Structures are given as structure tokens and as C-alpha cells.
Amino acid sequence: MPGANRSTILASLLLLSFGLTGRPAIAQVDLSGRWGQTLTEDEPELFPGSEIGDYTELPINDAARMRADTWDAQKWEMIEHECDPHGITYAPFGITIQQELTPFTEAVLDWQVRLDEGQIRRIYMDGRPHPSENGLHTWEGFSTGEWDGDNLKVTVTHMKEAWLKRNGVPRSEKATFIQYFIAHGDFMMLVTDYEDPVYLTEPFIRHSNFIRNRVTRFRANYCLPSISVEHPEGYVAYHLPGKNAFLTEFASRWGIPLEAARGGAETRYPEYQDKLARMPAPPKLPEPKENKQ
After folding, report:
1. 33: left (phi over 0), alpha (psi -120 to 50) or beta
2. Nearest CA to 183 among 26, 25, 24, 29?
3. Which of 9, 11, 129, 234 is the most exposed place for a label (fewest CB within 10 A)?
4. Mean pLDDT, to the nearest integer, of 249-269?
5. Euclidean distance between CA atoms 102 and 60, whole angstroms
6. What is the pTM of this model?
7. How many Å apart are CA 68 and CA 60, to the nearest integer?
């Protein structure tokens, strides 16, 4: 019957439309908006940054220690490095998140995360594969996301070499991150699982807390390199192995045994307290000389 045929066709079209549009998972959360990082007990680590020689609780290997021991902060005076961004090893102080929807289904194609340094990071939600091992590496890396309950789970690869801590502890281009964006109302936590076959002996977990920012508009960030400190042509900032005189200052200032300040996976676990108690105290810092005029 013609009427029955029309009903059958209509029902088929409705089923097809449901299949094409799909339904979002019940637990999906809208992360859109501006977020500012809360700086509380973590502020010294984030700003002004880690102290030289502070590798405590980092599961690093000897190669990472050598890179950090020979690192010199004068690197940032070199014109070719003045505008190097943070990459995504450090969570930025402010981010703006917005979603890009596919035109027909309005499914989330990607989350666009604009960092306060100006970079735009895309988290693809369409199931696309990561590039090959030889694919382009960028400061933000290549990110794909999926929902794990009401948390956005993000896998990150293809990052340029950067640093794990801002005192020279490195992070290689072979590292992989697993990140979780966990939002509850106006609060969000970013948890990152770092895995680096070059410099880490086991995964390293770090988290940052954000609060929704309904007032401040993050300003555009531009960097124009210029010569701020004169250096000879071909100058490279470095310390020769074993010649960095600043490596022990952190341990001496805080009364931490020198061996413990060197980090390693074992320093992260409670059992290390027994070993720590048997270590000698570090040498004290010399008293500052009085400026007699």
C-alpha cells in the first residue's frame, strides 16, 4: 500500500537521522569558557620557577640529570630562544576553551584550547589516528580526546623537546602524555601522566587546578626577539659537567641531603624516609658578607 510505503520510508529516515546525529554521552561536560590557574602552595614551582638542583621526587635517570646539571638560565638571553613557548609540559596560567561542532550533526569535532601565551591547541574528538613516528612535532603536540565517564581523557604525542621543570630537567620529543580534564561546576583539575622513555624511569603524575574566570579577558601575547644582553657571536649558555657551582644551593638552603635532592623514582615512596634519615646533612650556605662602606 502507498500509505504503508510512506510510513516505512518515514520510519527509515527517522532511524537514519538518529544514527547520523547520534546522542552525546550522558556524562559529557561542557568545558567551554575561560579558566585561570589557581596559584596556592604550587606558586613557587610555577612562578618564579624551580630552584637550580631541585630534582626531588622526579623519576629521572642519569641522562636527565646530566642535561639539567649543565643547563644555564642564560639560555633565555639568547635571541634564538627568547620566544620559545612553554609547550604543554607546564599547564598555562590561563586558558580559553571552545568547542568546534560539525555542521550537520553538531557533534564535537574538536576542543580548541587557547593558551595564555597565544598558541592554539586542538584536541580532536573524531577518532582520527595519531600521525606516524616521523610526523610533524610541535610545541603543543598532537592531541586526541575521548570521554571517560564525565572526564575528558586526552592522549598527546608529537611534542617538540622541552622541559619537565623550569630548572633544566628535560622532556624528550618521544614523550607521551595522558591528560584528564576533570570539571565540576566552576572548578577544573588537569591531571597529566607523563611517560618519557628517554628521561623518565617510570610515569610521573602532575596536576593543576583551575577556576572559571568570568571577568578577566586574557590579553594577546606576542614576542618579538631582541638583543637584551650582549654575547659574543656563537655564544651558547651552558655549564661544563661537574662545574655547576649552584647545584648544591637548593639542598643547603632547605636542609635536604644532597643525594635526595638528586631525585630518582625511589625518592617518591614512603620507604625512602628510612634511607633519608641515615643520610648526612648538606653543607650550610656561607654567611653573606657584610657590605662595609
Report:
1. left
2. 29
3. 234
4. 94
5. 42
6. 0.82
7. 10
